Amino acid sequence: MPIAPCGHKTLLVRSRVLFDRPKRYQVRARLFSPMSEESAYAAATQGSALQWLPHVLTVAGSDSGAGAGIQADIKACAAAGVYCSSVITAVTAQNTVGVQGVYSIAEEFVAEQLRSVLSDMKVDVIKTGMLPSPGVIAVLCQIIKEFQVGTVVVDPVMVSTSGDILSGPSTLTGFLEQLLPLADIVTPNLKEASALLGGIFLDTVGDMRSAAKSIHDLGARNVLVKGGDLRGSSDAIDIFFDGEQFHELSGPRIMTRNTHGTGCTLASYIAAELAKGTPMLLAVQVSLHPFCFCACFTAGILYATLAKQLFIMIVGLISGPNSRFSADSLLLYAVTDSRMNRKWSRSMAEAVKASIEGGATIVQLREKEAETGKFIDIAVKCVAICRSYGVPLLINDRIDVALACDADGVHVGQSDMPVIFARKILGAGKIIGVSCKTPAQAEKAWADGADYIGCGGVFPTTTKKNNPTIGLDGLKAVCLSSKLPVVAIGGIGAENAQSVMELSAPNLKGVAVVSALFDQESVAAETDRLKSLLMDMVMTDR
Ligand SMILES: Cc1ncc(COP(=O)(O)OP(=O)(O)O)c(N)n1
Ligand SMILES: Cc1ncsc1CCOP(=O)(O)O
Ligand SMILES: [Mg+2]
């Protein structure tokens, strides 16, 4: 059975392991790695196919009537062709009329279910539904950070459509302080939006916009306020806010009282689209399309066949999430310096090539002196070199130069162009890194749409003047405050890299280095030396 139906010689396979490389190079989770057709087939037939499928983990309550909750989530994901695992937070006795009983699962057992799934399977998106107690919210948030789940969709289920309380007021603080700051999107209806905002009255589309903005201010990266209950409108109007722009998404109102389970279904369909790599706004638009709803409710018929799963898998592989950026590329981050190049009489292109040949996993052109035209000339050459090796190249500070040379992204500091504007200019396809010294800056980095954090200077350095050091404690505080991947920078070299990498923060992915690579006689040899050390540290860490 051929794996690649359209004549592809190799497949880009999402996998936790590089199957066709020696053990030394099977480093952590390399998300997109070239894999031969034979290896892909072998892995598929050996039970690893699950690792490739887009995967949503729903953390929600069971609905015995199967119209909402876990059961609706699984059906929606199946209709979208996405694998859905489930962690049950409560068992409800429920039918289309109302909720007759609730049996909450102890937070320890919710944690055990979460760890079982996350320690074994690649989960692209966690979607949350009924979270019956503050303890369940707390363990969920802790485990989301611990396993660095890429995307979190929060359906702030508090009251069922029938009016029954599913999460009492005691959970509100957990939602506000712990879960919303981790949410890539939150999807409240009017009642839930009002509850999240202290019971304010929402009566107009204008109120919905203000609510979306206020909920975004609470930490959610994107907000969809669903206006199905809005009085007096002939269309159903939902407001989507991404922190910058509002989108009014309207569709014909379906006149029915059978709305039980629609919130769960919509949030799950959004989660499934995100798991396949669909950009956020499109994921919401696709999910709101009436066809999707019909598909979800007839999911029993549409339940994915193996052929469909394979097709979706291949589409997911080609256009999947994170295809532009793997956090593992931060392992050895080479940051150039033209003064050092002059000192050692080499061109920027020579320095970049040598660092890659020595094993640099990502390169940043940090050019503080050259005029714009000259910088672009250099950058164009370096982009060509990096691309030929499959190593990403980022530009320091200069969004215009990054655009001109079609670099893979930019690195900006706190006083450079803010991430939110850089993202607006560069779009979703480019990598954006931002320097952070404090947890507050790290939280903002995530909310603004950064892909990674550069944290430092960790140790004293002469490469960057007037830059206070934050030490290993400062680095740890930043790592623990964010789910973004972090690269440490400042005074790092072979002699102290281990002390940095030993920090017990799973999102600390590597070290960014200037002088230890470029202020050296042989860039390739020094890069290779540091790379070997880092590889050994990562290997013993497994
Ligand atoms: C990976 C990485 N982290 C931090 C920095 C520093 O950026 P910034 O704070 O903008 O300072 P300059 O590099 O512009 O002087 C970085 N360049 N790379
Ligand atoms: C750019 C930058 N940002 C924080 S420290 C630093 C310089 C790191 O240089 P080196 O690796 O030579 O200490
Ligand atoms: Mg800068």
UniProtKB/TrEMBL annotation:
Which stretches make up the Thiamine phosphate synthase/TenI domain?
332-517
Q: Start and end of every Pyridoxamine kinase/Phosphomethylpyrimidine kinase domain? A: 63-286
- What domain of life does the UniProt record list for this protein's source? Eukaryota
Sorted keywords for this record are: ATP-binding, Kinase, Magnesium, Metal-binding, Multifunctional enzyme, Nucleotide-binding, Thiamine biosynthesis, Transferase
Reaction equations catalysed: 4-methyl-5-(2-phosphooxyethyl)-thiazole + 4-amino-2-methyl-5-(diphosphooxymethyl)pyrimidine + H(+) = thiamine phosphate + diphosphate; 2-(2-carboxy-4-methylthiazol-5-yl)ethyl phosphate + 4-amino-2-methyl-5-(diphosphooxymethyl)pyrimidine + 2 H(+) = thiamine phosphate + CO2 + diphosphate; 2-[(2R,5Z)-2-carboxy-4-methylthiazol-5(2H)-ylidene]ethyl phosphate + 4-amino-2-methyl-5-(diphosphooxymethyl)pyrimidine + 2 H(+) = thiamine phosphate + CO2 + diphosphate
Q: Which InterPro entries match?
A: Aldolase_TIM, HMP/HMP-P_kinase_dom, PM/HMP-P_kinase-1, Ribokinase-like, ThiamineP_synth_sf, ThiamineP_synth_TenI, TMP_synthase
- Pathways involved: Cofactor biosynthesis; thiamine diphosphate biosynthesis; thiamine phosphate from 4-amino-2-methyl-5-diphosphomethylpyrimidine and 4-methyl-5-(2-phosphoethyl)-thiazole: step 1/1
Q: What is its EC number?
A: 2.5.1.3
Range of residues in the leader sequence = none
Keyword Magnesium tagged: yes
Name under which the protein is recorded: thiamine phosphate synthase
| UniProt source species | Platanthera guangdongensis
